[in-house]
UniProtKB/TrEMBL annotation:
Residue spans crossing the bilayer: 10-27
PANTHER family tied to this protein: CDAA REGULATORY PROTEIN CDAR
One Pfam family linked to the record: YbbR
Organism superkingdom: Bacteria
Gene3D superfamilies per record: 2.170.120.30, YbbR-like domain
Protein's UniProt name: YbbR-like protein
Keyword set, alphabetical order: Membrane, Transmembrane, Transmembrane helix
Organism: Lawsonibacter hominis
Length: 414
């Protein structure tokens, strides 16, 4: 019977299967042994921060620590574990007061090893030590300083900052130290407007930057400040005045002397394009027929909005003096009344008028009073005795002119 069984092919099939199974058990046990080793550098996740913040508290120290776990598991399980997929969670939602706390933590393994046997043989540290502090926030101004410089013949303008304030949140004792946020421009030899997004540092009440370790614990919505520093070109601009010939003055260059006080030039700042065509600044005009010998006229110094008056001089007094010419006063009695309103009659009450003329001595001596003609325009005048401005004409001489303004008295009747 036994011989019959051993001669059967099924006998050998069954034996082979049994041997294979035994071999599989042996190899499996030897090829996938149990492994014990530490997993280091597992980051801590803090839960319940919202509740903590509602109580005006925050985790000021300890949240950045890491945990080491001493684990034992089959090799194929252990190979699926590392410090990125193991989660360490500590819950701070039940903390109500600031201070030092020591909390238990929860260990969560990845789904890829769910149901597998993992033995925790040790953990370092056993508990997580945290420092709980009161938190606050405040708005601090942003200031800018220039440690660099502008090029020669250039001037810096005023800093423009956006935003102008920064809201900082963090541990109360740190936040209260802050006086302002500072950005520093260290550009050298600037010749054009500087515009850049820049990081800032917090300055404490003693004027010193906050320690980097302390600053790293603070939170702000902004990480940079848009800094604009205008840079202008400087140019010295001479002042001038327009001289309108008249009153016998025919050559202003040789017959008129002009002086300016307190300055005869100003320094102007602006862009190179705006300054390109500005070679002089005319402050006003003077009609020379109104200047008898010398006259002081004060003018405002005005620039276009694109330019800045660096000198700060807002007005100048221009002295206009006539030189090299002679004057003479003649009594003129040729008076004409023109444009008398319809239905009205007019009569000159003034019979003679002293008129001053000016020019070269020889030409002035040759002028006669009969050459002077006084004309009063009565357009739009009404009845009554009144003073009327007149225009004085000098006939027969082109080298001599009348100096000044004149009036006569006229009577208008209906």
């Amino acid at each position: 019977m036994w011989k019959k069984i051993t001669d059967s092919k099924w006998f050998y099939i069954v034996v082979s299967l049994l041997l294979a199974f035994v071999l599989w058990l042996y190899v499996g046990k030897e090829a996938n042994p149990s492994v014990a080793a530490p997993v280091r550098g597992i980051k801590v996740t803090v839960a319940g921060l919202e509740k903590l913040e509602e109580r005006g508290l925050m985790v000021s120290e300890g949240a950045d620590q890491t945990i080491t776990l001493d684990l034992q598991a089959k090799r194929n399980v252990f190979n699926r574990l590392d410090n990125e997929n193991i989660t360490i969670t500590v819950d701070v939602s039940n903390i109500n007061e600031p201070g030092e706390v020591s909390l238990d933590y929860k260990i969560t393994y990845p789904l890829s090893v769910y149901g597998e046997v993992i033995e925790e043989r040790g953990k370092r540290p056993e508990k997580i030590a945290l420092t709980i502090s009161r938190w606050t926030e405040k708005e601090v101004p942003v200031r800018a300083v220039l440690t660099g410089n502008v090029a020669e013949d250039y001037q810096q303008g005023e800093f423009s900052l956006a935003p102008q304030t920064v809201t900082v949140r963090g541990r109360e004792e740190l936040v209260e130290q802050i006086d302002y946020a500072q950005v520093t421009v260290s550009q050298e030899g600037m010749t054009e407007t500087y515009r850049q997004e820049m990081p800032f540092v917090f300055i404490d009440r003693n004027g010193s930057p906050l320690e980097e370790e302390d600053a790293s614990q603070l939170v702000t919505e902004e990480s940079t400040i848009l800094v604009t520093l205008p840079v202008y070109k400087l140019k010295e601009i001479p002042l001038t005045v327009d001289l309108v010939p008249g009153g016998g003055v025919t050559d202003v260059d040789s017959q008129v002397e002009v002086t300016f006080k307190p300055v005869d030039s100003i320094v102007v700042a602006g862009s190179e394009d705006d300054l390109e065509g500005l070679n002089e600044l005319t402050v006003g005009s003077v009609d020379l027929y109104q200047v008898f010998t010398s006259e002081d006229v004060t003018f405002p110094v005005q620039l276009s909005p694109e330019l800045t008056n660096v000198s700060g001089v807002t007005e100048v007094t221009v002295t206009v003096a006539i030189k090299g010419l002679s004057t003479k006063v003649l009594e003129a009695n040729k008076i004409e009344l023109i444009n008398v309103p319809e239905g009205y009659a007019a009569e000159a009450i003034t019979q003679t008028c002293s008129i001053q003329i000016r020019g070269a001595q020889e030409a002035v001596d040759a002028v006669l009073a009969s050459q002077l003609r006084i004309v009063a325009d009565l357009s739009d005048r009404t009845a009554g005795s009144q003073t009327v401005p007149v225009k004085v004409y000098l006939d027969g001489s082109s080298e001599v002119g009348v100096v000044g303004d004149y009036n006569i008295v006229v009577s208008i009747t209906q």
